[in-house]
Write a structure and sequence with these properties.
heterodimer, A: alpha/beta, five-stranded mixed β-sheet, 5 strands, 9% strand, B: alpha/beta, globular, binds adenosine-5'-triphosphate, binds magnesium ion
Chain lengths: 374, 248
């Protein structure tokens, strides 16, 4: 049964050749027969007879090939002969079908640069509008929940606090400890040159409490919880879970969005506090071994120089950062289309955009604090 | 031995749960073979084993002349081009358009020109009753019934000799379901396909299946023509084929 394809040709009269195809006219052999015909020298030939008498097997790709053979032999008259009624019937069937099929629908349109610029701008504008609308809806749901506090999903909030805050304690503590060590080590060398060893306390106190603690925390949470929220909610969109919830009257805002935002916003200061403590601890260790400043001296000077205000300046940023991270992540999660690709795209966007937003927000805070003289 | 599928004494377990306990059946070349049974009896699992997605604990599976459980990677790759599989929920590639879903195997496995491939895709779309303009849509943009049709077109892309269908007509309206049955019969005639399908659709089974097997309680209860089946009496068969008996 498994005859490979055999093609041969002979000149049967002047200007006339016969191509004889036998064996399996199936998908695997089509390109080789195309090649065979492409290599024929067709100079002065105006008629091609194609003989299919000895075909064992023909599948639909074979039939389509025979049907479209005139595309390859443009300048010749083609006669197809076959003594097998079955094959002739199939060829006729394919021919009738293919006549009504055009393949132009598949051509993707190309657009001019101007069109693309306009299209992308309109898209960006629409994204902005849809984020605003999400933001509005979110605030409205908050407002409704404040009117009916019994409807708040406390259980979910607790669950999210455990998953996103408590389980992040370790990584935040370790990262800030290491940052504290690095910053202290780098500056201790410079400070020692000027004999200004004690100022390590001022430097670490200000930089960690005001900037490094909050920023490190926010960036880790953006990577950790931000990507988690987007991928999780996105997968729920793909599996139609969110639609199912909606049909059962479970409001996505109340069940999914607000618990996550509330958990992050309220607990972010705790994480920043942990980051502050471990960063300062790392700095203190370096101060002791590098600059010979004892722990008791470090703490004494710290209490004297660094006011509570500095700590609060860092802590107050927490809820804002948390809100940005959670709302951007959830917005992108809800934006996932019904396919797996868009989970990846939206998760990337979510993390990148929330880190960017955190840094912009931090800059705005710096300006405000400077203007207020804090 | 001209069975296109021949399985013997298949035992399947998930953990300690036994799903199949020594299942044997065989499908002749050119036959449409249906597998029926209550939900959860392991029909999908059996199909997955036939296409090497899941390995049974013991037994032997012979497909298209290969011993599947001892086959080398290369042999299985070879087999994979000779069978098509229609998943219960379509399992279309969600990041590719309908057109690309069907064209992908052709682009990967043949060196045909893209022009010829587009002709073949158009033909396959037409065959399953879709318009060629549907080709530019994405899986998320089409209805459940269309997903089934596209999945069938994709399963047929490489001109397989053997087609596995997991509940092909579930989720289709009765008219589309009957169209699907006729399509299956036409395909068998035209492409000399053999078909193994899992189905809960009695109409479809009556119209298309040459023989069938009933799996219940880990075993093949009976295997044979529809008449053989209805003359066997188990609670499942009685309940399932009641409608058929009434109509005779
Ligand atoms: N990956 C898995 N892990 C554990 N158990 C499984 C797994 N896949 C299937 N099962 C179990 O095997 C049994 C058979 O499942 P299968 O999907 O084959 O059923 P089915 O006959 O196709 O049912 P349906 O008609 O509902 O599609 C079920 O009891 C299921 O719980
Ligand atoms: Mg199943």
């Amino acid at each position: 049964m498994a005859h490979p394809l055999l093609v041969s040709h002979k000149n049967i009269a002047s200007g006339k050749i016969e191509i004889d195809i036998s064996g399996n006219l199936t998908l695997n052999y089509i390109s080789s027969i195309k090649r065979y015909i492409g290599e024929l020298s067709l100079e002065g030939i105006d008629t091609v007879d194609i003989n299919l008498d000895n075909i064992d097997n023909m599948d639909s790709s074979g039939a389509i090939f025979i049907d479209s053979i005139s595309a390859q032999l443009k300048n010749q008259k083609i006669n197809i002969t076959c003594n097998q009624p079955e094959i002739i019937k199939n060829l006729a069937l394919i021919h009738a079908k293919m006549k009504n099929i055009n393949t132009y629908g598949f051509v993707t349109d190309k657009h001019s640069l101007l069109y693309n610029v306009g299209f992308q701008s309109a898209k960006a504008y629409k994204t902005f509008l849809s984020f605003l609308s999400f933001f509005g809806e979110l605030n409205y749901s908050f407002y409704l929940l404040l009117l009916h506090p019994s409807k708040i999903r406390y259980k979910e909030i607790i669950f999210e606090i455990n998953a996103n805050i408590i389980k992040a304690f370790g990584i935040i503590a370790v990262t800030s400890f290491l940052v504290g060590v690095v910053v202290a080590y780098q500056s201790s060398i410079q400070l020692a040159k000027y004999g200004a060893n004690v100022f390590i306390v001022d430097m670490l106190g200000l930089s960690i409490l005001r900037e490094l603690g909050p920023l490190i925390t926010a960036i880790i949470i953006a990577g950790r919880s931000g990507s988690f929220f987007t991928a999780q909610i996105g997968a729920m969109k793909v599996t139609l879970e969110i639609d199912a919830m909606q049909t059962m009257g479970f409001d996505a805002m109340r069940f999914l969005v607000i618990p996550r935002i509330v958990a992050l916003v309220f607990m972010m200061p705790v994480l920043i506090f942990i980051a502050d403590i471990s960063g300062l601890f790392g700095g203190m260790l370096v101060a002791k071994y590098q600059l010979g400043i004892s722990a008791s001296f470090f703490i004494g000077r710290f209490l004297e120089i660094i006011s509570v205000k500095q700590f609060l300046v860092g802590i107050i940023k927490g809820p804002f950062f948390a809100f940005l991270i959670a709302s951007i992540a959830i917005y992108h999660g809800l934006n996932v289309k019904n396919d797996t690709q868009s989970i990846g795209v939206n998760t990337t966007k979510s993390v990148v955009e929330s880190i960017f937003a955190i840094i912009v927000c931090d800059a705005v805070f710096s300006i405000i604090f400077t203007v207020l003289g804090i | 031995m001209d069975y296109i599928v021949d399985i013997k004494d298949i035992v399947t377990k998930f953990g300690t749960t036994v799903v199949h306990d020594k299942i044997s059946l065989h499908v002749k070349s050119g036959e449409i073979y249906a597998i029926v049974g209550p939900s959860g009896c392991g029909k999908s699992t059996l199909l997955r084993e036939l296409v090497a997605l899941h390995k049974p604990v013991s037994g032997s599976i012979n497909i298209l002349g290969y011993n599947l459980l001892n086959a080398s990677y290369k042999q299985i790759q070879e087999l994979r081009k000779q069978w098509g599989f229609l998943f219960q929920n379509g399992a279309l590639f969600s990041s590719l358009s309908i057109y690309d879903n069907i064209a992908l195997p052709l682009m990967e496995y043949t060196d045909l020109s893209s022009k010829f491939i587009s002709k073949m895709v158009a033909y396959k779309l037409d065959l399953v009753g879709l318009k060629d303009s549907d080709g530019s849509l994405f899986p998320s943009e089409i209805s459940g019934g269309m997903v089934k049709k596209v999945a069938l077109a994709r399963a047929l892309a490489l001109e397989p000799r053997l087609l596995f269908l997991d509940e092909p007509t579930s989720g289709l309206d009765p008219i589309s379901a009957r169209e699907f049955d006729r399509l299956l019969l036409r395909l068998r005639e035209f492409l000399s396909l053999s078909v193994v399908m899992v189905s809960h659709d009695l109409h479809s089974i009556r119209l298309t299946a040459d023989r069938l097997a009933v799996i219940d309680d880990k075993h093949i209860v009976v295997q044979g023509s529809l008449d053989d089946i209805v003359n066997t009496h188990t609670p499942f068969i009685n309940a399932f084929f009641d409608a058929y008996k009434d109509k005779r």
